[in-house]
Design goal:
The structure is a single chain. By secondary structure, the chain is mostly helical. The protein has one domain: Winged helix-like DNA-binding domain superfamily/Winged helix DNA-binding domain (Arc Repressor Mutant, subunit A), CATH 1.10.10.10. 65% of the residues lie in helices and 6% in strands. The chain contains 6 helices and 2 strands. The chain has a two-stranded antiparallel sheet. A hairpin with a 7-residue loop joins strand 1 and strand 2 (100-104). It starts with 13 loop residues before the first helix and ends in a 5-residue tail after the last helix.
């Protein structure tokens, strides 16, 4: 029998557990968003846009990509669709001639508010198995992993190219 490449049993693999958790959570969120006709990417953009409008002034596409953690080309295509659906408008930035600002329309603001509430209800139901301290610990560990990955990604981006 050939030597196995696996380091862990499936249930002891952190990556496989994360995959299972993410798949289950995404299914719940997709179900919550179905009645709004939104994909998860579209919702992430709209919710991030709403947050930036409420907390950070007029958002540019670049700031929106950073906030939503969505690749710029994917974001641009999704914004084009949201604009066609009448949920957002793109405007030339008054502050920076190179930038494009994105704003929710009135119908986009209303739909986004309803979708955020539905997603937050789905989140609450999904994470209900974790009591207060367990949920706080899970969130702290998750933030640690995200921060470590951002730092590693930043280091890789600023490292000299290898031959």
């Amino acid at each position: 029998m050939a030597e196995t490449p696996f380091r862990h049993d499936a249930e002891a693999s952190p990556g496989f557990l994360l995959w299972q958790l993410t798949s289950r959570w995404q299914a719940r969120i997709a179900t919550a968003l179905q009645r709004f006709g939104l994909t998860q990417t579209q919702h992430a953009i709209l919710a991030s846009l709403r947050w930036l409008e409420e907390h950070g002034g007029p958002p540019t596409q670049s700031r929106l990509a950073e906030q939503a953690q969505i690749e710029k080309m994917t974001l641009s295509k999704a914004i084009r669709r949201l604009e066609e659906d009448g949920l957002v408008a793109r405007l030339a930035s008054a502050r920076d001639a190179r930038a494009t600002e994105v704003a929710l329309t009135a119908s986009g603001t209303a739909l986004t508010g309803e979708a955020i509430r539905a997603v937050e209800e789905a989140d609450e139901a999904f994470f209900a198995a974790l009591d207060g301290p367990a949920r706080q610990a899970w969130m702290a560990h998750t933030r640690t992993l995200i921060g470590a990955d951002r730092a590693a990604s930043s280091d890789e981006e600023h490292s000299p190219a290898r031959p």
